[in-house]
Amino acid sequence: MKVRGRYRRLGTALVLAIVVVGSLGSWLAMAQVREVQQRHAALLMEHNTDAIERALANEASRYAETLSDVSAAIAAQTTFTHTDFEVMTSRLTRDRLPGASAIGFVVAAEPDEAAGVQQYWRERGAGNLRLRTAEGAGEHYYLIFSRALDNVAPDVGRDVSAAEEPAAALRLARARGSVAASHPYVLLKDRDLPAAEQQRAFLLAAPVSRQIDRNGATEFLGWITLTTRGSDFIEETLLAYAGELVKVTLSAVDGSSVAAVASTTPTGVLLRESRLHRTRTVTVGEQDWRIDVQPTDSLISGTERRLPEAALGIGLFVTLLAGGLADSRRRALRQVDQATSALRHDIERRKEVEARLRESEDQLRHLALHDTLTALANRALFDERLANGLRAQQRTREALAVFFVDLDGFKAVNDGLGHSAGDQLLVEAARRLEVCARSSDIVARLGGDEFAILAEGLTGDGAEEAEAIAGRIVRSLQTPFDIDGQPVTVSCSVGVAIREPGSDAYGAEQLVHTADEAMYAAKTSGKNRFVMSRHDGAPAQWT
């Protein structure tokens, strides 16, 4: 009897040990799966936030460069007129400046000078100009010329100093001699709209100064300004990167004060895990802008969200099964087999989850570095390859070239046949560019109808090979495209910047900028052609 009681107690102890150890193992398995989930979600957030930050920085750089280029063009004029303004801004559209409302030219004057300023600019093409001075003493800022980039008619003659935010940005741009951004405010022309339709917006201003003598003295002429509505900017630049996975909020930072400009509106439910939230800061026009990125429940699929609970349930089931059968050696052995099989299945499931996570990471990296429409490299990958190419050139002593390609007539196709036809045209154009380039070259879509090609390892000074590639591009893209059975004809303007062997005077940014300028030269000289510029340490020469 004593022996039987001893075995009974040993059996009970064995069952309890199995239950305790199995439960602990189940909880540890659930914690491990949840930790893998959190690492995966954190990686997704990092990829998304990096892409959003790059998109904002790229667009901000494009805005600032556009304003600086127009400012320089105005300063180069002996007499600046309304016609000059229209010509200089004719190529600026919402495609090139997403979210922008209007580009304008603003001058400063005292209230008693308004009549004389009005007459001066009427004589220079602003025939119906009527300046309307806002209340307040001191200097006033009048909008003289304006080109609308949205559907709202320009409000020339308005006194911009009626709102302190844009007035402060104008003063800062003049004092610093560089592009400055305003704090968020409601555009003056939007203040008559219902409150629900008013958006927080911001203004970018670039000073326009002209040199008047050889000693470097300058004359201040005014400002070139760009107004942008926050929600429009978010929808046209950052929404494509945010999608339904995250919510993005753009805010202006002034010391400890943070003013929200606009946010995306995902349909998913926001997750509360604070460690998945991401915040980045980008400086644009002397103004700090904060990007807050919050995850939604779409970040992790429903099936994967239930994996920790599934792992716990399987583990507890196996544990209870083992404890219930522990009093019989035969049944215990069978349970061990079943438990082992279940554990193997659990391990395999975890391996599958980890494999899917690794695959998702690879897909995210590919998405972060490639254009979703054409599958070409995007600007981030192109910039990375260009930086590597410039470093490699110091060893190889071989020439390299950057080609900047802009389609002529694409907007007419997009507007006339629809965005679907426009997308087909971009995809087919991308394929032709890949054929024109060499197999070692990288072809990228920078946005809209703009493409770039990086060609390394060119022989000699690179001019002969670069000219051959550019010629193939021009001839290939002028061949009609078959879009849904309809022939469509466009052309292209190509700018080429060559960096010769041994040159180290120019970096990646200058090289791309030179190719862009060469493309503009091709565009203004008749389109359907290419223009080459050489970066060899000497001033650029157009050929």
Automatic annotation (TrEMBL):
One of its GO terms (biological process) is signal transduction. PANTHER family: DIGUANYLATE CYCLASE DGCT-RELATED (PTHR46663), GGDEF DOMAIN-CONTAINING PROTEIN (PTHR46663:SF2). The keyword Transmembrane applies. It comes from Paractinoplanes brasiliensis. InterPro entries: CHASE_dom, CHASE_sf, DGC-Regulatory_Protein, GGDEF_dom, Nucleotide_cyclase, Rev_trsase/Diguanyl_cyclase. It comes from the Bacteria. One of its GO terms (molecular function) is catalytic activity. NCBIfam families: GGDEF. GO terms for cellular component: membrane. It holds the Pfam family GGDEF. Keywords: Coiled coil, Membrane, Transmembrane, Transmembrane helix. Residues 398-535 form the GGDEF domain. Residues 139-238 form the CHASE domain. This is Diguanylate cyclase (GGDEF)-like protein. Residues 343-370 form a coiled coil. It is found in: Membrane.
